[in-house]
Design brief:
about 10% strand; globular; three-stranded parallel β-sheet
Length: about 200
């Protein structure tokens, strides 16, 4: 609301928030000092060079920082969709592009299923009644600051439970000359040229 960026107060965006020493301590406490003896786990992703690069980067970072080995497995899109929906994975890539210009387009993905086997986009099968309550109340709240706070509270809860691990945001670069006028870029990243013209 009021033109503020929801992500400005997003805790997980703090690049210095990662604590490898604490992660190593917890691994040691669990019986896996320096990742030794930790079972190999598999990261699934769908066929795409960008997704493969992400998977390789995660694999390298976990090995370098935690001593954990992960295997990579790619699947054709339809097979991968089925694997995720059925929960047939240990770790799986997921991505989402906003359908509309509001944080809810990302947050309501993680509400629990409406019945057995009904999870919608919630391939993590995340189930937290408090999260569900916050999202449901935020959807009908008309006080915008209060609604925004509810969504931040829900996101903080999601990041505490960690059914998903945010890795990166899609970006696109737009470059054009200053004599190109009236090209409009929407908050969702779409470019519109219907009113564009070249200034002589």
């Amino acid at each position: 609301h009021e033109g503020n960026n929801f992500a400005d107060k997003t805790k997980y965006l703090d690049k210095d928030a990662g604590d490898f020493e604490e992660a190593k301590r917890l691994l040691t406490e669990a019986g896996y000092p320096n990742g030794e003896g930790f079972p190999t786990i598999t990261l699934k992703y769908n066929n795409n060079t960008t997704h493969q690069n992400m998977a390789v980067a995660v694999q390298a970072m976990w090995k370098q920082n935690l001593g954990i080995d992960i295997e990579l497995a790619n699947e054709e899109w339809a097979v991968f969709q089925t694997s995720r929906i059925n929960g047939d994975y240990e770790i799986a890539r997921h991505g989402w592009i906003a359908d509309y210009n509001d944080p809810m387009t990302f947050l309501d993905m993680w509400v629990s299923g409406e019945g057995p086997g009904v999870w919608g986009n919630n391939d993590a099968h995340y189930d937290n009644p408090e999260y569900d309550r916050l999202i449901a109340e935020a959807k009908v709240e008309t006080d915008l600051p209060k609604r925004t706070q509810m969504m931040h509270d829900a996101q903080d809860l999601l990041m505490e439970d960690l059914p998903v691990i945010p890795i990166y945001f899609y970006t696109n670069v737009v470059a054009y000359r200053d004599y190109v006028k009236e090209v409009r870029k929407s908050p969702l990243g779409f470019l519109f040229f219907e009113n564009a013209y070249i200034e002589e």
